[in-house]
Amino acid sequence: NAGVxxxxxxxxxxxxxxxTLQCAQDMNHEYMSWYRQDPGMGLRLIHYSVGAGITxxxxxxxxxxxxxxxxxxxxxxxxxxxPSQTSVYFCASRSPGSTGNTIYFGEGSxxxxx
Amino acid sequence: AQSVTQPDxxxxxxxxxxLELRCNYSYGATPYLFWYVQSPGQGLQLLLKYFSGDTLVxxxxxxxxxxxxxxxxxxxxxxxxxxxxxxxxxxAVGAIEGTAxxxxxxTGTRLQVTL
Lengths: 114, 115
Description:
Number of strands of chain A: 11
Distance between the termini of chain B: 41 Å
Shape of chain B: globular
Oligomer: heterodimer
Number of helices of chain B: 0
Radius of gyration of chain A: 13 Å
Structural class of chain B: mainly beta
Order of helices and strands of chain A: EEEEEEEEEEE
Largest sheet of chain B: 6 strands, mixed
Order of helices and strands of chain B: EEEEEEEEEEEE
Number of strands of chain B: 12
Helix content of chain B: under 10%
Largest sheet of chain A: 7 strands, mixed
Distance between the termini of chain A: 30 Å
Radius of gyration of chain B: 14 Å
Shape of chain A: globular
Number of helices of chain A: 0
Largest interface: A-B, 27 and 26 residues
């Protein structure tokens, strides 16, 4: 998981609160994405970005916002947290190119909404 | 749409026994295939990946996987399991070019190793 840093690692929110999960990578990767992991569901793509200023929705985008003002950072915002957003969130990045194509994951952020 | 099926939710093997974790995928083009491992409370670690070429792929920790296009499968194998291999394993298929990083994951297989 070298190079992708997520904060916070653990967070408890009350329903209706807002918060931002931070993701930063120091590998100059253009592609970054956010996944959520739920029991029995595997990982599902929330939002992704192919470069600074460019974002797009994934499979489960509702309730989440993202922005990509720099190459390094890709924050995920919960505007009004709901219990259904209790999950483990993973940020990932990779560099485009024909070799390697390894996707690097952060260590995860455990979020509980009560 | 791409999809991944891991038919085994939970597998238990004895230490030293061989292991095979199944993965079937659905994808419209040549797939990029991955196996990840996740230990409890940890993030995802890439075990191996297949993009093209030799259909038998070697990974870390003694794991290998074989891509079989005719069966749409990418099963993970290890000849002799160690207790430290107990974890959850995820198969993933994805488009790497263009919109990259759009991996579709299976629901995972939890591996338990008995001594």
